Amino acid sequence: MDIREFVEQSIGHWRSQRSAHHLAFGHFEAVQSEIDITSLSIDAPEVIELCQTYNIDPQTAVLPFRMSWEGQSDWEDSEAVKGNCVLIPVPDLEQPNRGKLLRERGYAEEMAAVGEYYFTDDGTFVLTTSYDRAAAEEKIWFVNPNVRCRVSLIKTSAGTGVVTASFSSEIRQTSKS
Asked: Domain count of the chain?
């Protein structure tokens, strides 16, 4: 698996069921979401702008995409959880199974961020991102072309303590002919 294959397999409309353990609050949360992952052109204004933020040549990027989500949490009277984010993979030229992932909005904090990714031998995508007050580690793997799983950890900024642990199963919605 490489980043091109991973992004191509991820494009589409997904239904997600996430369970999260918020250790700091001693709370369990269930979230059901709809996720859309769509391709962006390498010359899209938001791609160029994000690349410029990090002094990255857009031509070194591979398959930029936008991820949009909307979901509902069972955490008390929470409002719908929704948002979107531009993501730009930039593979390492010397190690094609590694690279950087530019994010318009982070997973652990609402700020632009750059994560480091790599693929394990079994094709699992592993992304680690450091923020000001936290660090995130995500692992995503495909069970088959239309089912993928995601494990996410939000850690303290030193990376020694886990604040939140979550598991998501995501099923691609395919059209019925």
From this structure: 1
